[in-house]
Specification:
Chains A, B: It holds the Pfam family M20_dimer. Chains A, B: This is Carnosine dipeptidase 1. Chains A, B: InterPro entries: ArgE/DapE_CS, Cyt/Met_Dipeptidase, Peptidase_M20, Peptidase_M20_dimer. Chains A, B: It comes from Haplochromis burtoni. Chains A, B: Belongs to the peptidase M20A family. The structure is a homodimer. By secondary structure, chain A is of the alpha/beta class. The first copy, chain A, folds into two domains: 273 residues, Aminopeptidase (3-Layer(aba) Sandwich), CATH 3.40.630; 129 residues, Alpha-Beta Plaits (2-Layer Sandwich). Chain A has a four-stranded parallel beta sheet, sandwiched between helices. The termini of chain A are close together. The relative contact order of chain A is 0.19. The N terminus of chain A is likely disordered. At the A-B interface, strand 8, helix 8, helix 9, helix 13 and strand 9 of A face strand 8, helix 8, helix 9, helix 13 and strand 9 of B.
Chain lengths: 450, 450
């Protein structure tokens, strides 16, 4: 049987806020910054304090509707109520959900994996496979050094590892899912530089060719109103949708009305499920994130910005190649810019070039997952992809040469990176069971098939 | 002869920085904020300390090249060296120039007017006309209340006023100038709103119609790469360039190479002087200042902004009407937006609607100015316009019904609102002489011509 297993649990704070608020000096975020270090260097002490909550506490949870603001302190002294002014940095539990910044992305899944291991230990059963954890607390600040660490540990920590599991993802509906793909991401800066300093639009407006006008002009050539990417070569490189994929998407449980309500729009880019899922997962997208250097504060300012930098990204899918995309985008923007005959200078740089990741859903690792899900939930999983990027998946695959599975337990409506992020107790507890079952199933995989 | 004269001296700090830095909590700007109040409520005490600098001090100035960093303290004890960490908030004097934030825009012109009045008093001569000052220290924060004050004082402070003089402007070259027009300004917010909150571009990219893409799309329809305004009706409303104007522009002293060097570009929007001056002063311009709500910080963020607001403005010229422009812009953007068939919501608002101002250069007020300039500088003035907006000029004209002249003494290269703003001692001293001469010339205007 299997000798060594490695579980990769990416501990992801919902820290887009964290990352950017930190520089603003919000003391709450400094506090959180401290926590992320704490997790990184000493991950278990805090987790285990959760994992070892004694039974009387858990009984509190079975009457969630009786919770009142004063309840935790007055009625349940042993309730581990870690809450303060910055309460969103810890998980607290209310109305059947675990709330907190990063509750679902990715504190609860990390805990669930630890509970799974703990369950075997508590029952004095041998683990069916050996387990190693990698817990990463700095993903939202770019995971600096993680790639280098993985490469450095290839022949030591990772030497006997057979499989890699990532749980940094979520279901698409109330139905459990296995994730077999993520999109990559090519992130670009397009900088247009004109006068040597910002100018007053009254005094100079009409005499200079404004960098902002140039930048708007070239950005408008990236994508059509209907979402068609206009950069030559991009669409040609995309792998065509196979009949099998079409059928798989057709069978996936996905409520479009619910999806629309969740994000608060009354019309999506595509009106049928298959098109929508396909464009969410396996077609590229252009998003324009914003412009640096121009006036972005509230109020009015009559400035001609001297140098403006647009930030936009293109999500990558098979068979796109980031190096090729870099060339296509750069060449295209320069050719569009040249037509404007502007004296300003354009500089296009690709600052992120992450490849997509795609797994074979018929691999034994996935077959084991299907069995485990059937056992715990009594249904077949949705086989889904992620539109976002988990660059480390690709790194693990390239460096270790091992197969990867992504096994989510987060709910489709957990609100990652958003207000009131939560994980339901149902997903948390059943998810823990799933991980326990999965450890068992993986141990059944025939050694030859590795 | 003239009974009463009113001099309007707008005391303008170069306070775009001031306005926006203040909110950032820079203590230097808080200090400056204090100063602006100080000027506003007690304008003379500080000025007169400058005006009454004793002769031995002035003799220091006659050897400007002998200045060294240690000079002021060690060699010239009586030198009024007001400088500290925030030295740019006061005027200090070096190498023949008066440096300081707002030195030319508009501290020195205010002082020069006070010196002019002082000169008559020192010589025990009666002022040839009566003089009233209005000194405004809050223009860069929007001059809140100034319009209301002028209206309220129409029949009291302003009741016997015959003429209004504004010196909040500058020459176009080394040749003295009289200013006879300014452009107005219509400032717009165009807001596109989509999902109820920001979304992750990986997770949602491809499924939603992004507000940023819509906004870029409509902004790109405002103006062509060659500077042509594409909003229907705008160009049609602009008064045609008369032969007289063409000839006037042709005669104006204006060095295009110097202008290019100053702003650091190698190509301007127009390659000949008349076109350039015409588009600087008497044609409208569209400037896109920036976008609020999108990602504008350094670094990368993979966000789909939920609500983005573009800020752009159109400088107004005769015979444009801000109310009409508001309708033209709003209708046009909505029609362009409708073609995109986007489910997002567009809201266009005009937050500033300032009319242009234009004077008759053959008015006795201007004829007196020409004579005074001839007397002091022994040459005829350039008759120029300003591309920027001084909304209060129009308010004075509309409320009081009196004629206005703009008489600049600031140099063309003073760097208003920029680093190292300065006023040359030459302009400062000869400008003071000009004002003295002008008081005399104005007193000669025949009463009947008022």
């Amino acid at each position: 049987y299997i000798i060594v297993m490695l579980f990769i649990l990416l501990l992801l704070f919902s820290s887009a806020c964290f990352l950017f608020s930190f520089s603003s000096g919000d003391p709450g975020d400094r506090y959180m910054y401290f926590f992320s270090f704490f997790f990184f260097f000493c991950p278990f002490c805090w987790f285990l304090s959760f994992a070892l909550l004694p039974p009387p506490l858990l009984s509190c949870f079975s009457f969630p509707l009786s919770f009142s603001p004063s309840f935790p302190q007055s009625k349940c002294k042993r309730f581990m109520y870690i809450i303060n002014k910055y309460s969103d940095i810890v998980i607290f539990i209310l109305l059947g959900n675990l709330y907190g910044r990063g509750a679902s992305d990715n504190k609860a899944p990390v805990l669930a994996w630890i509970h799974a291991v703990e369950a075997y230990q508590t029952l004095s059963m041998d683990l069916p496979v050996n387990v190693k954890f990698v817990i990463e607390g700095m993903e939202e600040t770019g995971s600096n050094g993680l790639d280098a660490m993985i490469m450095a540990q290839r022949d030591t920590f990772f030497s006997e590892v057979d499989y890699i599991i990532i749980s940094d993802c979520g279901w698409l509906s109330r139905r459990p899912a296995l994730t077999y793909g993520t999109r990559g991401n090519c992130y670009f800066f397009a900088e247009v530089e004109g006068p040597k300093q910002d100018l007053h639009s009254g005094v100079y407006g009409g005499t200079v060719i404004e960098p902002m006008t140039d930048l708007i002009g070239i950005l408008d050539t990236l994508i059509s109103p209907s979402g068609k990417i206009l950069i030559p070569g991009i669409r040609e490189a995309v792998a065509p949708l196979s009949d099998e994929e079409w059928k798989m998407y057709q069978d996936i449980q996905f409520d479009m009305d619910n999806y629309k309500n969740k994000i608060g729009v009354n019309q999506l880019m595509y009106s049928n499920k298959v098109d929508l899922l396909a464009h969410m997962w396996r077609y590229p997208t252009v998003s324009i994130h914003g412009i640096e250097g121009a006036f972005s504060d509230p109020g009015t300012k009559t400035v001609i910005p001297a140098k403006v930098t647009a930030k936009f990204s293109i999500r990558q899918v098979p068979d796109m190649d980031p190096a090729m995309v870099k060339k296509q985008v750069t060449d295209y923007l320069h050719s569009v810019f040249a037509k404007r005959k502007s004296p300003n200078k354009l500089k296009v740089t690709m600052v992120i070039g992450a490849k997509p990741w795609l797994a074979d859903t018929h691999h034994p690792l996935y077959e084991a997952g299907k069995v485990a899900i059937k056992r715990v939930f009594n249904m077949d999983p949705d086989l889904i992809r992620e539109g976002g990027t988990i660059p480390i998946a690709r790194t693990f695959q390239d460096v270790t040469g091992k197969s990867i599975i992504m096994m989510p337990i987060g709910g489709f409506d957990d609100g990652l990176h958003s207000q009131n992020e939560k994980m339901s107790r149902y997903n948390y507890i059943e998810g823990t069971k799933l991980f326990i079952a999965y450890l068992n199933e993986v141990s059944q995989i025939k050694r030859t098939s590795v």
